[in-house]
Amino acid sequence: MVSVLTEVFEPARQEQPQIPLEIPSPEMDLPASLITQAFPEETPASTLAEFPSVEISPLASSRLVFFTQPESLAAEKFRFLGVKLRQMQQARSLKKLLITSTIPEEGKSLVCANLAGVLAKRNQKVLLIEGDLRRPVLAEHFGLGRLAGLAEWLQGHKQKLTNIYHLNGVDFWLMPAGNPPSNPLELMTSASLQDLAARLTRFFDWIIVDSPPLLPLADTSIWERVADGTLLVTRVGQTQKSQLKNGLELIKKANLLGVVLNSCSDADHDNYYQRYSPK
What gap in Å lies between CA 212 and CA 132, rounded to an integer? Predict the structure, then answer.
């Protein structure tokens, strides 16, 4: 696994960054200035206050360690990931963060939820978007019922921002997937998704998108167009080397921020942390 990652990251460090030349098309991002003029009534304070609040009831199996075990080694690892991302944000334009995996069951939704929690602890406004319209699980992790979400907003293409909920107890916002539509790819390729992403950047410090896995779907490539950077989650004992390599090849090197190794166990490291962690 390390050799595969080295092949990707080492050449990327030697390459000089290039500015892509894009020909305008109907599906390209709208300039932020146009979005601002089109919806002048939307201001961060008034809009965030309009989003309803909901009570969460996390499942025991959800492993939301930032909430249930804040002094654990796992929670500390997520805090460290948050520190690294904030450092990146100071050096580059980074607000819309896409988190994906190569195949299902690698824990990307777990990473999304815990990362949103630790970033919100720093008094930053964080929005978590359940971008997997096919097999959404985030709302279930928080013990929420079926709420109207991204699918309903895209189908209605509403002028007003709706279907976003403030989660009491964790102090960040969630836009769930909603009811799985029959045409998820068609919905996501519409201009509505780009309009939504451009408008949301005005209200939040971080927008974390839990996207579908890279293989074998095309949904993640659509989310990548509106994201500022991508984190790839891979799982020890789950992801094969060939799958990881294929997944890395599908992500633009300029967008790849790093790889999160999930389900990694180190007994010595755990014992060391327990001796020096707060009581």
Answer: 5
Q: How far is CA 160 from the centre of its chain?
A: 22
Amino acid in the structure at residue 157: H
The model's pTM: 0.80
Among candidate residues 203, 204, 223, the one with its CA nearest the CA of residue 212: 223
Q: Which residues pair with 259 in a beta bridge?
A: 232
Q: Which fold has domain 46-276?
A: Rossmann fold (3.40.50)
CB 203 within 8 A of CB 124: no
**Given phi > 0 = left and psi -120 to 50 = alpha, else beta, which region is 63?**
left
Per residue in 49-70, pLDDT (tens digit) is 889 999 998 877 778 999 989 9
In this structure, the strands spanning 206-210 and 229-235 are unpaired
Give the distance from CA 14 to its chain's centroid: 28
Residue by residue, DSSP assigns 232-246 as: EEEETTTS-HHHHHH
Q: Are strands 165-168 and 172-175 parallel, antiparallel or unpaired?
A: antiparallel
Note the pLDDT tens digit of each residue in 217-269: 777 888 998 999 999 999 988 888 898 888 888 888 888 999 999 887 764 55
Angle between helices 267-276 and 73-91 (to 10 degrees): 90
**Closest CA relative to residue 101, chosen from 216, 254, 266:** 216
Question: 106-134 burial, b for 16+ CB within 10 Å, e for fewer?
Answer: bbbbbbbbbbbbbbbbeebbbbbbbbbbe
Phi first, then psi, for residue 97 (nearest 5°) are -105, 125
Q: Residue 245 is encoded by which pair of tokens?
A: 């390599």
**Phi, psi values for residue 261, rounded to 5°:** -90, 110
Residue 168, SS3 per DSSP: strand
